[in-house]
Structures are given as C-alpha cells and as structure tokens.
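Progress report, Aim 2. The chain analyzed during this reporting quarter is listed below.
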Amino acid sequence: MKTGISCGARPGAAAAALGASLLLPAILDSRSASGLLLGRFSAGLAAAGLLDAALLAGSLLLLVRPSACRRAAALFARMPDLLLVLLAVSPATLLIGSRAGAARRDAVRNSLTASVSLLLCLGAAELAVRAVVPGSHFNPRLGLIPYTRYTIMVDLPGVSFGGTLSTNRWGLRGEEPPEDWDAWTTIVTVGGSTTADYYLDDSRTWSHVLQETLRERDPHVWVGNGGIPMHSSETHEYFLREVVAEIHPDVVVFMVGINDIGQFMRGSVALTEPPLPERGVRAFLFERSRLLQSLYKMKKVFLDGAPVISENVDPEFELLPMPGPERPLPEDMGTLIPDPDQYARRIRRLIKTCRELGVTPVFLTQPLLYDDTEYWRGIQGGCSWILGSDSVFSAATHWRMLDYLNGQLLEVCSREQVACLDLASMIPHDSTMFYDAMHFTEAGSRRIGLLTGRFLLSRGIPPAPRPQGPEPPGRREAP
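Predicted structure tokens for the chain:
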C-alpha cells in the first residue's frame, strides 16, 4: 500500500510555484498612479500581490508536505458555491475598482471580452468532448459508461487471455435489460472491484455465473453487474439512490467489506476523498458537462494516482516475508479503531434504503486469499495502519481486519432478518481462487456465482417459473 499522495501532484505544485515566483517580483516592482497603500500600490495591485504570494506559499507547502493536498481538496469541496464564485471574480473586481474614468471603462470592456472569449472556447471544447465521449444514463460521477467494449490482454494466473469487457445501455456489465422489465426477475450486483471482475471475460464474472445458475429454474432472470472499483459500503448508498431507485430491480446482491478496511489504517492511507457536492452550482455543472467530467478523470489519474484499468496487465503482486516480528494485537480487532460500529451502521443504512425502495437486499461476506495461520503471519499484508506508520502488518492481520467486518455484517443481517451468505467461510484461502490478495480467478468467480445462485434458489429467488416468452436478449454490440 502506498503512503501519502501520488508524486504526480508534485510537478503541478512545482509549476505553480515557479510561475508565482516569476510574477511576484514584477508585482513588487510595479507602482500605481493612485498609491493608496504604502504610497505605491493601488488596492487592485496589492490584492494581486497577496494572491500571488498565497499561491507561491501554497505551492511550496504542497512540495514540502504533499499530504496537505488532500486537506486542500477537502477544504475546496466543502466551500459554499457562493464563496467560490466570489473568490473567482474578486481579482477582476479589485482591478476594475482600482481604476477611474476611461481606464475603468477599458478594464470593464476588456474583462467582458475575456469572459465571453473564455465561455466560447469552453463551449467549443464541450462540443468536441461530447462528440467523442459517450454520456452516462445515470449520474456521471458513478462512471457507468454505456456501450463500452474492450479486449483484455491479461497475464494473470487463473484468467484466460483475450477476454471481453463490455457494458449495456445502462453502463452495467451484462446483457441488455429486458424490455418487459416487470415480467422478469431482475437482479443487480453491487460492490467494488471484486464484484466488477474487470479482468475476467463477460461470461466468466460471478454475476454472469449467478445469472446462468438462476436461469436453470427460470430463463427469465436478468443480472446486471454494478461493481465499481474502490466503492465501499458508504458509496453503495449513493449507487442505490442514483441507479437502483431509477430501475427498480427485484433484488440487490451486495458483496461488501474489502474497501471498508480503511478504518484500520492511519494517515493518508485512511483518508477518503471528499465527495463531490450533490447539490449546488458545482453539482449542476458537473452532471451536465462532459468536459468537466473528463478533466476530473484526468485529475484523478495524473494527480491523485488513482488506479487505471488497463487492457494489458502484468501485475506486480508477490508475497513478501515479514521484515520482523509483528506487534502484539488484541483479540477484538474492534478495539483498534475509533468507531467500531461505523461499518454496522452503514450496513443498516443500506438495508433501510433497500426497504424504502421496495428492493430485496442480499449480502455476501468478502473472501480473501489470506488466512489467520502461521504461514500467513510470516507474510506481509500491508503497512501504514493504525498502530503506526512504521508498522508493517501481516497477511494474517489483514484477514483478521476483514473477518471483523464480515462478522459485523453477519450479525446485522441476522438482527434485521436479511439474507446473508457467508462466502468468506466457503472459499478456500489459496491461489486457485485468487490471482492476488482479493480478486478472483475464473475458478474462484465460478464458485462464487454457483454458491450465490444456489443460496438465492434456496430462498425462492427466482420464484416459480414464469410462462414461456421471448428468448433472453443477447448482448448488444457497441455502436
């Protein structure tokens, strides 16, 4: 696991610092006709100097302490839209206000000309991006792009070479949604990358195997794969409100836990990115501008160091021995985290939202390659966790973290009388099931799909076979 933010943010900070350092001497060497401050600077020139000095100081801070970038992003995300607008227009306003007569009229005219030119350029860029970037049926912040199709040339153990990754008109992996939606048993699988199964062929994901298993009872079953990498129990709530609330499937199957381990971490590893505003000017613009959406993705990749799903993969997953003895751990892993009930509250919230939407929730505990055995106690599982940034924890501890969350999931589902399959206790902790610590091989995915399908069948999902109708829809090729 990486500590701190990606070093990709440093070139941007260095460029900003260089630009500000070149501009500041020119401002300091300038003299205004109306020397309101120190007999030399007008209000506008003084404000420009202060803004440039702030930019220089902020850029140098990011170079010295890159973790400050996340705090700055969090502060920006929480700023009211009105304050951001005022900050954006204040330099021009100060500049115009510092002038008089004809000079002020010229400043106003030049500012308007620059603003109109900028809007025209942005409009042209927006049209160009729309011509090449498809729009999403749902809120674009989910990243569900319709009609994508890739050939995945992977070099992963237990995964076939040259698989296909495609999405339907909703941006979900799976067949096209049936036209007579209410006549079918419809299911959406929700989770992170262990649900998305990106490096597996469409026909080998556990969501597809689940669909084929259920169709042995009733051919009118449709399963859409809504797995999104890095999504956790917190962001699944957003998926429910944006996607499930609109399409109203009969069942939602959650595989949760793997992306909730962050509460055991410390420092920048534990920080979650501040969410984009859901209301206001920024939310309005982001949801409608594909240019902003594309720029946001570029920022995520090049500045934040977000993982990129590549068509060609040569993974660097390897098992490394522990560098030394691991620190003693308590029997109850919950005593290590500030809010032991956080995960349970999130699960209860997911259940509550599903019930409000009239959807049946089903949960799966998250399996892992690691186990709490002597062998895995000698293998590294990660670093920068809550015991200290210099503390490397073992793979066995990694499993104990996840097992703690799995236990909370089972307990909440039992109290709420919600179906929960303990997959984690049914999947062997070996490399035939996983190609890395958590992601499934084709054999692992098939076993999960079969076990989940049999579990749903035992609970009457789908119900008795429906009358024969049209054949299930096939995949639609990307236009």
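The CA atoms of residues 40 and 71 lie 36 Å apart. The first helix runs from residue 9 to 28. These observations will guide the mutagenesis work planned for the next reporting period.
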